[in-house]
Amino acid sequence: MQDFWFYIKLGLEHVLDLGAYDHILFLAALAVPFTFKNWKKVLLLATVFTITHCLSLGLSAYGVLIMDVGLIEFLIPLTILLTAVFNIIYAKSDTEHKTILLHVIATAFFGVIHGFGFSNYFNMLMAGEEEKLGPLLGFATGIELSQLTVVLAVLSVTYLFQSVLRVKKTIFIVSVSILILLVTIPMLIATFPV
Asked: Domain map of the chain by residue range?
């Protein structure tokens, strides 16, 4: 059981590591169009992201499907960029009455990519180890707890700006998305496959 907690801690630290903030940026981009009022939509997206990244993490951990690390390191900031651009386009419309089907499809696809990103780190940790299921479950649990933390933080900041400071929803979403784009572009350049 102590090993399980160790891997939970590693999963938490992997996502919440400010030195490797790509997962935080993606989760921020994913959650910023929503508020606590839309918690069901956020829960749906988080669940889809969880299922798909756990699937690719598991497939990679057991050697069923291996992806090129360099390609994944480029695709992760690309998912952030695309999500932020989508937010800017989507901000002009009323998200209360729109379907989030496109969000769900994109989140599922991006979840697969992020799962392979998580697997690169996990596979390095597990090099030479035979028993992977317990560590994999612990690591995935840590990732989920950290993602929940990030999403709740983003929703809290959204509440502060939109409800307390009365920043218009569209202005808030577009501003945060542009900020995310500005942080992401250097990551894309640095990881561009040559």
From this structure: 2-191
Q: Contact 91/169 with Cβ under 8 angstroms?
A: yes
Q: Which two tokens stand for residue 58?
A: 């598991």
pTM over 0.85: yes
Residue range 136-184, pLDDT digits in tens: 999 999 999 999 999 999 999 999 999 999 999 999 999 999 999 999 9
Question: How far does Cα 64 stand from its chain's mean position?
Answer: 23
- 146: closest CA among 27, 15, 26? 15
Identify the residue whose tokens are 């942080």. Answer: 183
